[in-house]
Amino acid sequence: MTRAKLIRSLDDILDAAKRLATRRKVVLAPAEQDEGLRSLAEALRRGIVAPVLVGDRNRIVKLARSLRVPLGKMELVDEPDPLRAVQAAVGLCRRGEADILMKGAISTDQVLRAVLDRENGLASGKLLTHVTVFESPDRKRLMFMSDPAVNINPDAGRKIEIIQNAVAAARKLGIARPKIALLAATEKINPKDMPATADAAIITKMYETGQLTGADAAGPFGLDVAVSSFAAECKGISGPVAGKADILICPEINSANIFYKTLVYFAGREMAGVVLGAKAPMVVTSRSDSAATKLYTIALAAVLGGGE
Amino acid sequence: MTRAKLIRSLDDILDAAKRLATRRKVVLAPAEQDEGLRSLAEALRRGIVAPVLVGDRNRIVKLARSLRVPLGKMELVDEPDPLRAVQAAVGLCRRGEADILMKGAISTDQVLRAVLDRENGLASGKLLTHVTVFESPDRKRLMFMSDPAVNINPDAGRKIEIIQNAVAAARKLGIARPKIALLAATEKINPKDMPATADAAIITKMYETGQLTGADAAGPFGLDVAVSSFAAECKGISGPVAGKADILICPEINSANIFYKTLVYFAGREMAGVVLGAKAPMVVTSRSDSAATKLYTIALAAVLGGGE
Questions:
Q1: Does the beta carbon of B245 lie under 8 angstroms from any beta carbon of chain A?
Q2: Quick one: pLDDT at residue A285?
């Protein structure tokens, strides 16, 4: 495996997607959805991906006209039934005819069901997890956080799977040996009242003893200790991860989701986020995501997907 | 009760503290602590509070000299034993000889134990809760969040007490009828897997039926729906709280603590935060808090404390 070049910013993800030897194929289904069409058109215009649209051809053509989205360079597969459209898109990814699955006019639950289908799905044996990518406080490097959207209350075993997907993503963006912080409200291990601190102890011990490898892990850490060397020093905490974490693992979905949304709504940050663990990365953007976040997300999926 | 004037920013809290008819007395114990002494000296210089120092007189005098903190306008009570110093400070607050208790060179646990002491403490029958104050995304008004520091995993009953302390604080800062959002990762009620969404349903129903009064409550809300009218509209959610929440109640301590620290370390925000529920507000700043945050915290305690 050649070592991936380090990608330091969200804009660098766009550049990396453009530099790929072949354009990744993103299949949007059902494609009769304005924000999906619009963001794929923009990704195409920038040379980031090659779009495939699966859905109701008549409605797609009409919608594209009203949005002034040119369809000339997009493949189009007619499948008016939304659920069958998603299944067809999943089939394209399974057969290697597309690289990335993108949710259109259908609920996330229905997409996940099609992806997890035993016979015709995209299951790879890994846990499906959402990985969010954003820039560090000083904006000099990328950071990863999980899981704000898919896994509700993961135990230590599930957290290890969440970590593995995040580590794979970090490696693809050039971080050879990621630094993982297991977050909680405190650095004290409190197995009775704060299970997240116990999970952190278990997992960091597994990295210490070499049962898990390829990364440095530390925690439980407050977010301050994970991202600020000054805060870590104030609290007397050292080690390779303190103040310099690449990957933040949240205790459960509420804290991860609130973290994500604080970055967007208070810190004014753009993000990129994909669902990993299936045979193809999945793009599940939200209507309220900014246009930039949607574009970064498609580019991130392009960089993470495909065979390279 | 006269209606409090609306305070819109952290700097306005400083001004409000200065405008109080009498300077609030803040008692720092044990006072032989550099950042406590420094921030109280700054608060005194700005005319925000009147400091009282309880602790080892010799060490305090020496420390003040090395920090160039003038002690002339500070009361000084000699009590070399740290635990007894805290107990003496609690006694001053209990007898109304001081208005605000400030943690010095001792652990928060030990301060809380002295405050909760049945015979000689400051218990008022209310739950002790940490309330954090910060500026809204557009910085045009203040918002409140709880509980990032004291209550680990509150059930619905405890959350009501957390809300009551936050509502009391919001009222003192001029928000007559606060809008409360109960946060979770989603707007869907999922009693089986996401207890925070069930707590949100219980509490909002209690406000709807008039069992709880004096505020509007809504949730479960993602943070986006609570603070962004655009996000609320995208998700089809309306009502008085959506996009305009004054008070954010987090599911438990991890999410609240991560929210707090994301505001500080990614959004670059200053904060103010006090522990409420005892007969006097408590200031429990952390060594890594910025000087501005420490000053805003003392000013907030001044505005919330005392008899007015």
A1: no
A2: 87
SS3 B276: strand
Coil, helix or strand for A141? coil
pLDDT bracket for residue B288 (50, 70, 90): confident
* CA dist., res. A81 & res. A283, Å (int): 20
Structure tokens of B303? Answer: 């505005």
Q: What is the arithmetic mean of pLDDT over A93-122?
A: 95
Q: Choose the closest CB to B262 out of A153, A196, A267.
A: A267
Enter the tokens of residue A70.
């040119």
Measured between beta carbons, the chain A residues lying within 8 angstroms of B153 are 193-194
Q: Is the peptide bond before A220 cis (omega within 30 degrees of 0)?
A: yes
User: Which is it for strands A129-135 and A142-146: parallel, antiparallel or unpaired?
Assistant: antiparallel
Adjacency order of strands within the sheet including A216-221: A75-78, A49-55, A24-29, A100-103, A282-283, A272-276, A129-135, A142-146, A247-249, A179-183, A216-221
CB contact under 8 Å between B234 and A287, yes or no, is yes
Check if A67 contacts B (Cβ < 8 Å): no
B232-243 burial: b if 16+ Cβ within 10 Å, else e: bebbebeeebbb
CB B170 within 8 A of CB B209: no
Exposure string (b/e) for A164-193, b if CB count within 10 Å is 16 or more?
bbbbbbbbbbbbeebbbbbbbbbbebbeee
Provide the pLDDT for residue B287: 84
Q: A194-229 pLDDT, tens per residue? A: 999 999 999 999 999 999 999 999 999 999 999 999
What percent of the residues of chain B are helix, what percent strand, and what percent coil, each to the nearest 5?
40, 20, 40
Helix (H, G, I), strand (E, B) or coil at A201: helix
Q: Which residue of B has its CA nearest to A227?
A: B265
Distance of CA B238 to the CA centre of its chain: 29
Residue A23 is classified by DSSP as P
Largest alpha-carbon pair distance within chain A? 64
Distance CA B249, CA B126 (A): 17
Residue in B223, B231, B288 nearest the CB of A258: B223
Cis status of the peptide bond prior to A289, with omega within 30 of 0? no
Q: Does A124 touch chain B (CB under 8 A)?
A: no
- The C-alpha atoms of residue A245 and residue A176 are separated, in whole angstroms, by 13
Burial of A119 (0-12, 13-18, 19+ CB in 10 A): exposed
Single-letter code of the amino acid located at B260: Y
Say whether B182 sits in a helix, a strand or coil: strand
Of the partner residues A185, A234, A261, the one whose CB lies closest to the CB of residue B224: A261
Q: pTM to 2 decimals?
A: 0.96
B262, B287, B289: best to mutate for the A interface, most A CBs within 10 A: B262
Instruction: Please check whether residue A189 touches B, CB under 8 A.
Output: no
Place of tokens 């109304």: B96
**Distance in angstroms between the alpha carbons of the first and the last residue of chain A:** 9
Q: Does A243 touch chain B (CB under 8 A)?
A: no
Q: Which residue do the tokens 């969040």 mark?
A: B145
